[in-house]
Design a protein that fits this description.
Distance between the termini: 99 Å
Strand order of the largest sheet: 5-6-4-3-10-11-13-12
Organism: Biomphalaria glabrata
Protein name: Methyltransferase domain-containing protein
Order of helices and strands: HHHEEEHEEEEEEHEHEHEE
Radius of gyration: 31 Å
Oligomer: single chain
CATH architecture of the largest domain: 3-Layer(aba) Sandwich
Amino acid sequence: MAGGLFSSKRFLLLMIVFLMAGTVLFLTLSQSTVEVNKSTHLQQKVVVGEPKKNAGYLIKDQLPADERITEKPIQRKIEVPVHKPAVRRKDIVDNSGAMLYLQQYRDLFDAKADLSNVDPNKNSTIVKWWQAAAMIDWYIHSPIRYKCENRVAVGNWHICQDSKYTIKPPCLVYSFGINFDFSFDDAMTKLGCEVHSFDPSMDKETHRRENNSTFHNLGLSNTNTDGFLPRKDGYVNKPQVWKMRTLKSVMKELGHEEKVIDVLKIDIEGHEWAVIDNMMETGVFKYVRQFMLEFHLFPDWPVKEDYVNLYQIYTRLREMGFSEYAVGPHPKTLKEDKFNNQGDSEYVNIFFEQNNNLEL
């Protein structure tokens, strides 16, 4: 009887030991699983903030609900649409001379800034507004990159009549920004070109002019609208409503789709930055043989927070084959609250003959 009782106690003791061992093993495995899940979740959070392929801007609401980072999405230092195609760097430009401009602007606007990590030949190192402003200033003062042997005055602009770029009938000219000065447009008409002049600020209806050129009560933009409200400036001193079109839409409406624009002139008081960006996105630059641009950085517009993006747009234009054969700096004001810089550039598209086969 005593032996049987001892055996029963021994059996119960063994059962208790086995149960305790099982509990410890279960808790250990559970903790390991939690750590693995936590590690995996943390790794996923790092990945979630990166843009998905063709996701466009980094907007957290574009992600599935279970993948959003509610605190703050990971942002790039320079917010450029992710979907933009890379420019094939066919025209390599040495911007080393821009370092003097960067030093001057640093001394004026951020004297304690360190320039040791800034390389004027690397876009990604230009991250502050004054650095971008310095680079844009350099572009308008840097040595010309195409030497035009036959530069001809046409009104208050020029065209390059070198053999590769000669403008002769039949030729097509678009001129955006007139302000009642048709000297360029008339000179191109006398040359025998089909000329279209555009300016919504003049309060003139679309009409055929006496010299057979056409004036359009229409403005150039990065979007299509019939209800654009312009900002007041030296050209607009009363409320107006403008009809605006992208260049691609203008070409379509005028029956010029996929036709060569021999000369494109744009002087549109600060709107040029968004327009050029849109022209790159829509691929119409490949149809342009010569390009004339007046760029504007006004004291109040575009805002300085956009300067890095503006510099990138300007850089991309140069990289895709538009080389200056003439530049014309305007007087500038280098004070932060009154900052103002403007200038004219005249370009030839050095890759024009190949453009039909390029993805610019």
